[in-house]
Give the backbone structure.
Amino acid sequence: MTRNSDRWLDLLGLATLIFIGVGLYMAFLYAQTEVNMGLVYRIFFFHMGSIAAGFFAILLVAIAGIAYLKTNSRAWDRIAESSAEIGVVFCSIALVTGSIWARPIWGVWWTWDPRLMSFLILFLIYLAYLMLRATARDDARVARFSAVFGIIGFLNVPIVIMSARIWRGISPVLFREDNQGVTLGLTPQMVQTLVVCIVAFLLLFFYLLAHRVRLETLRDELIAMKRARAAR
């Protein structure tokens, strides 16, 4: 990478650290304690931040997959694979923080709620995606099949989002309808904290993605050098 790109990556890392620090301050000291759930409610901000980053990563897998099918460019394939890896990490964080949140509220670490079920299925789909990629990383056929798999897997995201309304489980509905229209059911301080935490997680995603794509590019260059040397 050039010095200019390294500089932008350093700035992105700095911005990520700043937003994470501000997000932690706002989550624990600025936002009010929720009346019914108490202090455990504060994990909600990190739970939603990880979900937002996970969903965005999965969206990028689908977009990069479509671009790869159209262009056969390895650059798009690197983005898809790297985004899927990071997306699975954020989805894992969402599952763990969701369980920690659920234990004092529902009395169990896990329940077969429609939203939890659909999110777990989404997580397993992209775990399977990574397992598929691992079978033959340099096979173009595997890359094309993975692109299709990633695009189809993204279709589960709207199901996860709408599941609480469609099947009426015990998961809370974030957007509520009342006589004032559609509202979040949060105080202004909570909304501000949620926005900052989501931005922090998205910045972290982009920072990790840039490094992961860079590593994959270096790997491809190393393989190309080895093949060129072997062909001599």
About this structure: The helical segments are 3-30, 43-71, 74-106, 114-135, 140-154, 156-166, 188-231.
